[in-house]
Amino acid sequence: MKEKIKKSSLLVLRILISLGLIGWIMLKVDRQQLLESFRSLNIWLLLSSLAAYFAVNAICNWRWQLLLSARGIKSGYWNLLRYFLNGLFFGNFLPTTVGGDLARAYLVAEDCKSKPEALASVLVDRFIGLFGVIVTGIIGLILVAKTGQEVSLLKALVIGILAALLSVVLFLNKSLVKKFRWILKLPLVQRIEHNIIDFYHAIYVYRTHPKEILWAFFLSLTVQVFVVITAYLIALSLGIEISMIPFFLYMPVIAAVSMIPLSINGWGLQEGAFIIFFGRAGVDKSAALSLGFLYHLVAIAISLLGGLLWLIYGGRKPGNSNNGDTKCG
Q: What are the residue ranges spanned by the domains of the chain?
């Protein structure tokens, strides 16, 4: 009961933070100008941004399929796309994005009966995606820094890269990890000791698949290009005159800010980040807020496809039928 009260309290707090941030932002912008930007919206460009964002998720799904395939989990692309969109839907409408990741891991694990491998594939997929975000941010920094701006962000990006690389090196050092095995003997952890060990080994073996990892990283960079295209098309639909170059720097940073677990699905945080960072590129607050708000709505619109597929198929697994579309190696 205490745990339920704690979770409910945290959820309410995050909702209040989201509402507070959105309310504070609305007080800081010209609301009349905000309405005008929506009235002059170019619908065709906005629809194009929806197509670009669907491509983002289609490529993410391809990357996930590649990682699963490397571990012998053979799942059809369209089955996985349904699972991926289901996860996207739950990620947008559950309190945390973790819920979406767990949903897709659960669905594919039920198909192939390999839960540690399925969960490991999602975690590795997330981590490779994070590296794609970081590298895209570096590229954007280099492009923007040529204009003499944003040099101050270099230190933060370098620290982020070093921290990520150090985490990987430490995690893949079995000798070091074994020194912390005593943690598995703690009363509350001991009951799932074997599950944790299986999960660790499921991640560790990815080091024997360098070709698939490199290809997945390339797909991560492609994903970030389409993220930039999505945001840029939304900016054009609002009549915002801006170069595409700043998007390569600001979109990865905004993505990182949105992951901070303070609000519900990044509401308020993401919009505030759009105002702060695109304001540095000369975009006024109202236009930047419109851009951030529409970007959020585009993401939610695509995730609703996952909700529709869940209503149609629910938890049914096409791979369990006689079509042989999904199997384990």
A: 32-328
